[in-house]
């Protein structure tokens, strides 16, 4: 059993961390309640590690997984120095306008 200050290996099966069947159901119920989605009863057994579980939940909720997010960022065009300068000027102008109107 882990102590509260111990780091958790995200690739270690939850069962080896002390998760039993009742705790698995409780975890599934809490995830359902907090995420607002319906999940299978055997969720934590089908996805036995924190990493597997997080990936499955991201897929169910149509969120990009870290690998998918990396693929997206790899295909995004990079801005030129001139475009970055223009963007910085726009941000500065926007902040200045907000400050003169009393917005923070």
Model description:
Keywords: Acyltransferase, Phosphopantetheine, Phosphoprotein, Transferase. By secondary structure, this protein is mainly alpha-helical. Helix content is 58%, strand content 0%. It has 5 helices and no strands. It has helices at 21-35, 43-46, 50-60, 66-75, 81-100. The longest helix has 20 residues, at 81-100. The radius of gyration is 22 Å and the shape is elongated. The chain starts with 20 loop residues before the first helix and ends with a helix.
Rg on CA atoms, Å: 22 Å
Question: Mind describing the biggest β-sheet?
Answer: none
Low-confidence stretches: none
Strand content: under 5%
How many beta-strand runs? 0
What would CATH call the architecture of one domain? Answer: Orthogonal Bundle
Order of helices and strands: HHHHH
Residue share in helix? 55-70%
Provide the CATH superfamily of one domain: ACP-like
Put simply, the count of helices is 5
Mean pLDDT: 78
Q: Report the oligomer.
A: single chain
Give the topology, please.
Layout: H1 21-35, H2 43-46, H3 50-60, H4 66-75, H5 81-100
